[in-house]
Amino acid sequence: MEQHITFDVAAPASRVWEILSDPERWPEWTSSVRSVRLDGGALKIGAKATIDQPRIPTVPWTVTSLSPGRSFTWESGGRAAHTVAHHVVEPLGADGCRVTLSVTQSGVVGSVVGRLYRGLTDRYLAMEAAGLTGRAESGWQPPPAG
Q1: Burial classification of residue 75, based on how many CB atoms lie within 10 Å of its CB (0-12 exposed, 13-18 middle, 19 or more buried)
Q2: Which of 8, 66, 80, 112 has its CA 20 to 30 A from that of 138?
Q3: 145 lies in a domain?
Q4: Is residue 143 situated within a structural domain?
């Protein structure tokens, strides 16, 4: 079972990627996420993340794919219940981009869970789309490193 949302953002892809690829800051722009702890603080293949979301059990995730500036995927679970979340940013010229966020549930248990959480997942994807768009289009800048 796959659910996704695709939306356009009136901000450069590099800006949107900067925001999306810093998951520990996601709670600042979406209430669908209470906290994200990313081992080592960096998004990289093999990194482990713990995501705390309202009404969803807190589970460990592993970054399984990363194309800097473009996309990342993280996965959770095993064969009986497996969840894959994919995040893609595609440039649409200098001042805009298209973002796709998707969640796929598979496995015997995962398919059932996907159906049970379908409405909540749709709401969370919409909240994340609105929050990411608002943050990227607002002129927000990350704090200086260090």
Answers
A1: middle
A2: 66
A3: no
A4: no
- Give CA–CA dist 136/40, Å, rounded: 25
Look at residue 31 and tell me if it is in a domain. Answer: yes
- For 15, the domain range is 2-137
Strand-pairing partners, residue 1, are none
How far is 35 from 15, CA to CA, in rounded Å?
22
Strand partners, 63: 74
**pLDDT tens readout for residues 27-47:** 999 999 999 999 987 899 999
- pLDDT for 1-30, tens place per residue? 889 999 999 999 999 999 999 999 999 999
Distance CA 77, CA 59 (A): 8
Q: Which class for 97: exposed (0-12), middle (13-18), buried (19 or more C-beta within 10 A)?
A: buried
pLDDT at 98 over 60: yes
Give the domain CATH number at 117. Answer: 3.30.530.20
- Identify whether 142 is part of a domain: no
